[in-house]
Design goal:
The structure holds two protein chains of two kinds. By secondary structure, chain A is an all-alpha fold. Chain A contains 35 helices and two strands. In chain B, a hairpin with a 6-residue loop joins β2 and β3. The chains are: A mainly alpha, B alpha+beta.
Chain lengths: 746, 187
């Protein structure tokens, strides 16, 4: 039984994530402050802060929580941790300044700075931390939540239980604030006044404890109904809980009161804490995180033949998919061609884009036929000038999205195999006749999907130090050298912006003699926000082809997901029945063309015209449609990720029956039920939230860049923000509909 | 007291921390829920059985059911039995194994099951490999209310971007005000 009790922990990812984040920020800031002021930011402060977080974790996640609705005494210990242990320890760490210093300087200056210097907030903070308010907050929270009606509410509802704990914790933070005198607060009462402050708080605590100890009946009905553990009666449990609240609770109030009394008698005065945040410019300049400098992983990714190994593995898989597609069973869930590309590859590719960057192009299996084409065919022609844009690739992307639905590619291994063969052949022919990476840059629709969405990725191949590039005369990153070719997509590293057209081939990394190119962390969407002229791609907002790709991908995400939900499918079938056609082809084609081409064109025109009228008089709607279309990329990408990760997570065991068939084994013992994990809808909504927020932010920055005043920028961005919110709402509606489980064994 | 190095934590530690955090999060994504409202408490020799249901009140959708088995003689928790919930509402029959591994409180046997709204009859089947006697079956009834609308169920997540939008609007207003103040001070 003891083992069962001790293992009853709750590992809530949100709680753990929050505690890790605030601990990490504090340690980061404390490390800097300790170097500057070792007497003020002592290891004891660090220990107190981390112990406070530890007490908070124990209070919320330990067996105390699991047994809280069976034993009042366990619940009481939990509350004491949240009221008299965790808050004072956290505040003893003087957490405000270390946490602020732990933030990235830019976030501190531009993100938090305006709030910190807001007089209204300072005034509110001063009022909130006034001792009377702090004392009342604590007293009201404790008395209110111990009233039977509200206590029962917390016991019977996890949500209200959380609210109750939050009330206790934050009220206690307020209560201990004037006692500990946390910076940036100033003492609003004389120090000795904290003695009656603490003693009167103890009187409230004592009165409540005595009520529990001396009550002749069980106050909280839940404990009367609960099974009794260890032979303790409900009334004994209640008396013990009261005693716990009384004795340790009182000690927690009276010890600081005693210390303050001794200080007052000895004439010790608290030293005023004058601490200022140094200007951001004086913060040390930190290099962004670099994947290539991560121990073990970095050298592996940098290894000259790493990319080739990935390509060979994916090439072998592609060949296996094509062979199984042509010669295997026609049932998609039993065929490699029905499972690997449509469940796994798409899911992993978008997750890689979200978590890192364009790693699919790095491992692209079509590189091998391209290389073969170059060796066997002349490969000396220049790609035709009229095709040097993304229009051909955009048209192929539309064709691919249309074909996916019309030919039900997810359920046709045969068609899937043909697509792979077609891809191999095209890559072989294009790069066999034309120089450079013409196939990647101008033809490949999958590549365009990755180029556009990688603009939102958190990693970017870029130079580590521009100062090093200024002294470079050889420009090996683009020209190449004897042992390594330069960038085939003509991206000159010192002037490269974002991941557009970057295949993560790392040729520039290998070619740079100064080892000055890395895979660095960047703010997602930075290239879209800054909208600078980039080497090899120009300025994206001035390229109609790039904007068209963005619009197609955003609306393609919506249409592709909509086509698999029940209401849309039923509507398409009823429309087909009403029109009396024998094939779904015209309806599906109409739906796709309207959704991917007509709707974005019409909406771009409407929003552009409105934005011109409201905030850009005399301008043209076209440049606005280009700029603000690019701003929608994060939202579109979030829809793709939510959609493909759904298939990946619900069908992650789809490979089992296929492998069982290929390896001639039985899969009867494996449960293949395709139930979505319970946390998936919340994760999908969070993804969409992130996409919407980033899109709105980029749109706002775009508007600010194009107009002088705030009011005009607001009017200009309004139609585009409305469009983004409408797309977000549509994607939520799709998310909540029953979905067709394409290509999966049920 | 020995003198501490100026920089107590190496920079590499900070860079590794988010990775470590992600790893910890990845290993803790399984949320266990049990406890909640007492649905049944009765003695059925040789056990005292208490059945809990969550959420309170029970709603259509994912429902957590858990059982505490105690010895009738000693009231000590019994932790080595096989426990199944057998549920029926006339339309569908569900049998699900409740285990201690699925419970946060390891004295309980818990199972998560999707239930439609309506009246459900359930039986708790208690058996055990080491128990020579016949398994014990405890019957009960529970009412499952209508499910929460999805918009309400995910309200927090849906409100998030709009809350952030409001904070951002305030931030931009404060920034523009700061700029105006700096501008007027310069003039």
């Amino acid at each position: 039984m003891a083992e069962a009790i001790l293992t009853s922990w709750r590992f809530d990812p949100w709680l753990i994530g929050f505690l890790l984040a605030v601990a990490w920020l504090y340690i980061r800031g404390w490390n800097q402050l300790h170097r500057q002021s070792p007497r003020r930011y002592t290891p004891e402060r660090l220990a107190a802060y981390l112990s406070g977080l530890g007490a908070l974790f124990v209070g919320l996640a330990s067996p105390l929580d699991a047994f809280g609705n069976l034993l009042l005494e366990a619940h009481m210990v939990q509350h004491l941790l949240l009221i008299v242990v965790a808050p004072p320890l956290i505040l003893l760490g003087q957490p405000v300044l270390p946490i602020l210093r732990g933030l990235p300087p830019r976030v501190l200056k531009e993100g938090i700075g305006p709030f910190l210097s807001w007089r209204g907030l300072r005034r509110a903070g001063r009022r909130l931390t006034h001792p009377v308010v702090c004392w009342l907050a604590m007293a009201v929270a404790i008395v209110f939540w111990h009233m039977p009606r509200w206590y029962e509410l917390g016991l019977n509802s996890p949500t209200w239980h959380g609210v109750e704990h939050a009330c206790f914790f934050y009220a206690a933070i307020l209560f201990w604030w004037p006692v500990i005198q946390v910076w940036p607060g100033h003492a609003q009462w004389p120090r000795w006044m904290m003695i009656p402050y603490l003693v009167t708080a103890d009187i409230v605590n004592t009165a409540l404890s005595a009520w529990l100890v001396f009550s002749t009946h069980v106050v909280y009905r839940t404990y009367e109904l609960a099974p009794r553990l260890g032979g303790i009666s409900a009334l004994d449990d209640q008396s013990t809980a009261g005693a716990i609240m009384w004795v340790p609770g009182s000690i927690a109030y009276l010890i600081p009161a005693f210390v303050l009394t001794m200080q007052a008698l000895n004439g010790v005065r608290a030293r005023p804490q004058i601490v200022r945040i140094r200007p951001t410019a004086q913060h040390e300049i930190r290099q962004p995180w670099d994947l290539l400098r991560v121990p073990v992983l970095g050298p592996i990714v940098r290894y000259r033949h790493f990319r080739r190994v990935l390509q060979v593995v994916l090439f072998a898989l592609a060949v296996a998919v094509a062979i199984d597609g042509f010669f295997g069973p026609r049932i998609a869930p039993m065929n490699l061609a029905g499972v690997l590309p449509w469940t796994y590859w798409r899911g992993f590719a978008v997750i890689a884009l979200l978590a890192g960057g364009n790693f699919f192009c790095m491992a692209c299996p079509f590189m091998l036929p391209r290389e073969l084409g170059r060796r066997l065919l002349p490969a000396r022609h220049r790609w035709p000038g009229m095709l040097r844009s993304k229009w051909l690739a955009a048209a192929l992307l539309v064709l691919y999205l249309w074909a996916y639905e019309v030919f039900s590619l997810w359920s046709s291994p045969w068609w899937t195999a043909w697509i792979i063969v077609g891809y191999f052949t095209t890559a072989f022919v294009v790069d066999g006749f034309f120089r450079g990476a013409s196939f990647c840059k101008y033809v490949c629709p999958i590549g365009q999907f990755h180029f556009v969405n990688a603009l939102v990725s958190p990693l970017e191949v870029k130079v580590r130090s521009h100062a090093v590039c200024e002294s470079c005369r050889t420009h090996d990153c683009i020209r190449g050298n004897e042992s390594q070719r330069g960038c085939e997509l003509l991206l000159f590293q010192p002037r490269k912006t974002g991941n557009f057209d970057c295949t993560f081939c790392l040729d520039c990394v290998q070619a740079c003699p100064q080892d000055n190119v890395g895979i660095l962390a960047t703010f997602p969407g930075r290239a879209l926000i800054e909208d600078r002229h980039g080497s090899g791609i120009g300025r994206l907002s001035q390229r109609p082809d790039a904007a068209a790709l963005a619009w197609i991908l955003v609306f393609g995400a919506l249409v592709n997901a909509a086509a698999m939900v029940d209401p849309v499918m039923r509507w398409m079938h009823s429309l087909d029945a009403a029109l009396g056609w024998r094939s779904m082809l015209p309806v599906t084609t109409g739906f796709y063309l309207a959704g991917i081409l007509a709707a974005p064109a019409l909406l771009a025109w409407i929003c552009g015209a409105l934005a011109v009228r409201l905030g850009h008089p005399g301008g043209s709607w076209r440049p606005l449609a280009r700029s603000f279309g690019l701003a929608l990329i994060p939202l579109g990408f979030s829809i793709w990720v939510a959609h493909f990760s759904y298939h990946l997570l619900t069908g992650w065991r789809s490979i089992v029956p296929v492998l069982a068939r290929v390896l001639h084994r039985s899969a009867s013992a494996v449960n293949l039920s395709a139930l979505a994990p319970s946390w998936l809808p919340a994760a999908q909504i969070l993804l969409l939230d992130g996409g919407l927020m980033l899109s709105l932010y980029i749109a706002w920055r775009t508007a600010r860049g194009q107009s002088a005043g705030m009011g005009r920028a607001l009017r200009m961005v309004a139609p585009w923000a409305a469009l983004a919110i409408a797309i977000y709402a549509a994607s939520l509606w799709i998310l909540f509909q029953p979905m067709q489980m394409r290509g999966m064994v049920m | 007291m020995p003198r501490l190095p100026a920089r107590l934590f190496p920079a590499g530690l900070f860079r590794a921390c988010p990775l470590l955090g992600c790893l910890l999060l990845a290993t803790s994504t399984r949320l266990l829920a049990d406890g909640g409202m007492v649905l049944l408490h009765q003695e059925s020799a040789p056990f005292v059985v208490t059945v809990f249901g969550s959420p309170t009140p029970l709603r259509a959708g994912a429902v957590d059911l858990s059982v505490l088995l105690q010895s009738s003689e000693t009231t000590e928790p019994v932790l080595d039995r096989d426990v199944d919930f057998i549920l029926t509402n006339g339309d569908s029959d569900i049998r699900v194994r409740a285990t201690r591994a699925q419970a946060q409180n390891k004295l309980l046997y818990a199972a998560s099951v999707r239930l439609a709204a309506g009246q459900w009859s359930y039986r708790i089947w208690v058996g055990g490999a080491h128990e020579p006697s016949a398994p014990v079956v405890i019957p009960g009834v529970m009412t499952v209310g209508a499910g929460q609308p999805k918009l309400a169920a995910y309200g927090t997540y849906l409100a998030l971007p709009f809350v952030c939008l409001a904070i951002f609007a305030l931030h931009q207003w404060l920034r523009s005000r700061m700029r105006e103040q700096i501008g007027s001070a310069t003039i």
